[in-house]
Amino acid sequence: MARQLPPSIPSVQPRISTLAELGALVRNRRLEQALRIDDAASFCGVSASLLSRLENGRPVQTDKLLLVLAGLGLGMVLGPKAALMDIDLPFFPLERA
C-alpha cells in the first residue's frame, strides 16, 4: 500500500525567527506540492537526510538551504529586524506550484 503524506497546515506565518519555524514552513510547502521527502530532495539537488534535518529544525549549510528554498518555490527577504516588524505580513495559504 502506498504511504500517505500527512496533511499540510492551511496557512503559515511567513515571519521566521527559529530553525523550527523555518523547517515547518519548508515541510508545509513540500506537502502542499504533494511531494515525498525523497522526491523533493532529489528535485532540489540535496539529500533526503539534509531535507529531513532542515524540516526538523536542525542546522544545514546556507548553500543547501538556498537550493531547497529555490526548488520548492520559496524565497527569503532580509532586513533590519525592527523595520521588518513594522511590515504587515499576513498568514498566507501556500499555493501549489
TrEMBL record:
<dbReference type="Pfam" id="PF13560">
    <property type="entry name" value="HTH_31"/>
</dbReference>
<protein>
    <submittedName>
        <fullName>Helix-turn-helix transcriptional regulator</fullName>
    </submittedName>
</protein>
<dbReference type="InterPro" id="IPR001387">
    <property type="entry name" value="Cro/C1-type_HTH"/>
</dbReference>
<dbReference type="InterPro" id="IPR010982">
    <property type="entry name" value="Lambda_DNA-bd_dom_sf"/>
</dbReference>
